[in-house]
Design brief:
With 593 residues, the protein is of the alpha+beta class.
Length: 593
């Protein structure tokens, strides 16, 4: 069915339900960034597949609001439909709400599916629309009424994530959560985010592409913990392990009934930014306490076992990348390789490593102009062919039982232009500046973000995405709460703590020409100076020296590069054969050699 035909059906349904505008987010009932196919409503109605964005449909307008990561890809995907791209220059700015306030007359009604909007989002919407006497209906899943072959909720089995990887058993994690609950004087805590639930119970799943989670909710009290999940998804060994540790398993849908039957005198801690408004309305308690999901901060600080595994998995990932890049260079001597085929080939090389469970996100393989599309995904029938010249940006990651990886490298297959070398080196200088930062305890992400941008800014250049995000441990590749980013987002305001694993990924993008990004993961460690912290770079793969203007690098930056490349060679070479070692040795040679 064509996009405009879907819009006709939606508008007909809107009229039947007295809805003047309908909003479709990117999320699911768990406020996930990446969602199971069932909740791809915004993508289904519009054709825009980016992981972030809002669709708004009225009787005379259809719009997509998204940020700079998707400007180019969204423009391509929307060009053959009625949908109009609205560019959000500052991430997280709700410009679609301003649009509705300007376009809708007083007395209008805006409809949403309350399952896919958080309590915080609904409160904001109702408040803003209320200024114009516009009503908000939260019970309208209009997509369900017109999407005939809508996918069902996934039914894949969950499985145990072994303690040898997790480093801490579920009983201890639940106990830690209960201690915080006691401090906050709450009787219950509802947790709706899929990665938190997976982390708490040391379980994983296959319900969301690239995210090893299972669709579930949980409620924890001082004496009980209940996992709400479709019963068919829980094999006997998982059920026995959970029940042995005092976890009750109830059906996914029964959470509404249990929330309805809470004793009115009890208190419950709810995260309004992640609990959907339908669940929030179902809570039968006079004391609903708003606060962050307790496990979120715990999960972000990796334990010693997790960090040790992270470092081991970087060796496996680096070996896979070395084999892939060496293969690619050989192929390009005689033929071209499509961007799509390269993504498939990289996944194959990763799959040869022990513990591999899939990619951590769809690989971004951007050759030449496609590299400037920040979240570009190559498609088999439309992607570019990579030849033995020009610049390639490759951002990819793997999911392993012992960790999650995320790495970006920009390489040139021919002598780069002076501009390409200069801009790549400015990005590299920012990358090194952040990697070598020493900062006092309590420093937040926005304070460190500047270190990655300063050299670009001095030349009047910039990039519009954040500089870094938290990374899960065999969990979501984008993990709250920390990160490096400008502005006043929750991520930018989070203090950087010992044990956090975060990406360091400054970039630069020249539309129609090339993209540059250099990304490693770093773990926060204590400095030898009391009260200060530093970063330990744990990703292991060489940075392309062909794209460096060495005259722009100072002695300290060159020393960092040489030390980093020596570390890469020492860690990866024992896992490679003789020819592969020689290839890697050349890539890791001293900068001034």
């Amino acid at each position: 069915m064509k996009i405009d035909d879907k819009l006709l059906l939606l508008r007909k349904s809107m009229k039947q339900h007295d809805v003047d505008a309908y909003i479709m987010p990117s999320s699911d009932p768990h406020q996930s960034e990446y969602v199971a196919d069932r909740w791809l409503s915004r993508a289904w109605i519009s054709g825009f597949t980016g992981s972030a964005g809002i669709a708004v449909v009225t009787q005379n307008h259809a719009g997509i609001w998204t940020d700079s990561r998707y400007f180019l890809s969204a423009a391509k995907q929307l060009k053959d439909s009625e949908f109009v791209l609205h560019k959000v220059i500052k991430q997280f700015t709700p410009l679609h709400v301003s649009f509705l306030k300007e376009r809708l007359p007083a007395g209008s009604t805006v409809g949403i599916d309350g399952w896919c909007f958080s309590k915080k989002q609904v409160d904001y919407l109702a408040n803003q629309l209320g200024f114009k006497d516009i009503k908000l209906k939260t019970s309208e899943d209009l997509i369900e009424k017109i999407w005939d072959d809508r996918p069902a909720i996934p039914q894949d089995d969950i499985f145990i994530h072994d303690i040898k990887y997790a480093g801490k058993d579920r009983k201890d994690k639940i106990s830690d959560i209960r201690k915080v609950m006691a401090e906050k004087k709450v009787d219950y805590h509802i947790i709706t985010t899929l990665d938190d639930i997976a982390w708490i119970y040391n379980i994983r799943g296959n319900d969301v592409k690239c995210n090893p989670v299972g669709i579930a909710y949980t409620i924890i009290s001082d004496k009980e913990s209940t996992l709400y999940i479709d019963q068919e998804k829980v094999p006997d060994n998982v059920r026995n392990a959970l029940e042995k540790d005092g976890v009750t398993i109830s059906s996914y849908q029964s959470i509404i009934k249990d929330l309805n039957e809470l004793d009115e005198s009890t208190s419950i801690l709810v995260d309004p930014s992640s609990c959907n408004v339908v669940l929030h309305k179902a809570i039968n308690s006079k004391e609903i306490i708003s606060g962050n999901t307790i496990s979120r901060a715990m999960k972000a600080v990796k334990n010693e076992t997790e960090i040790a595994h992270f470092k081991k998995v970087m060796v496996k990932d680096g070996v896979a990348l070395a084999k892939m890049y060496r293969w690619l260079e050989s192929e390009l001597n005689s033929t071209s390789v499509s961007e799509y085929d390269l993504a498939i080939k990289l996944a194959k090389f990763r799959s040869e490593q022990e513990g591999y469970k899939g990619e951590s996100f769809d690989a971004i393989v951007g050759y030449r102009a496609n590299g400037a599309i920040v979240h570009y995904k190559p498609e088999a029938d439309t992607c570019a062919d990579i030849n033995n010249n020009g610049v390639l940006l490759l951002d990819s990651g793997g999911q392993y039982l012992d960790g999650t990886t995320d790495i970006t490298r920009t390489v040139s297959f021919s002598e780069p232009t002076a501009e390409e070398k200069k801009n790549n080196t400015l990005v590299l200088k920012g990358h090194i500046g952040l990697a070598t930062a020493k900062f006092p305890v309590g420093t937040v992400g926005v304070q460190l973000d500047l270190l990655a941008r300063q050299h670009l800014w001095q030349h009047g250049l910039n990039y519009l995405h954040g500089t870094g995000h938290g990374v899960g441990f065999f969990l979501n590749v984008h993990e709250d709460p920390q990160g490096f980013s400008p502005g006043i987002s929750a991520r930018s305001k989070c203090p950087i703590e010992v044990g956090m694993v975060t990406s360091n990924e400054p970039g630069y993008y020249k539309e129609g020409h090339y993209g540059i990004r250099i990304e490693n993961l770093v773990v926060t460690v204590k400095s030898k100076d009391e009260g200060f912290l530093e970063f330990d770079t744990i990703t292991l793969f060489p940075i392309d020296q062909r794209l460096m203007d060495k005259g722009l690098l100072n002695p300290q930056e060159k020393e960092w590069l040489d030390n980093y490349h020596q570390k890469v060679y020492n860690k990866l070479s024992p896992q490679l054969n003789g020819e592969e070692q020689e290839w890697l040795k050349e890539k890791c040679k001293p900068i001034d050699q």
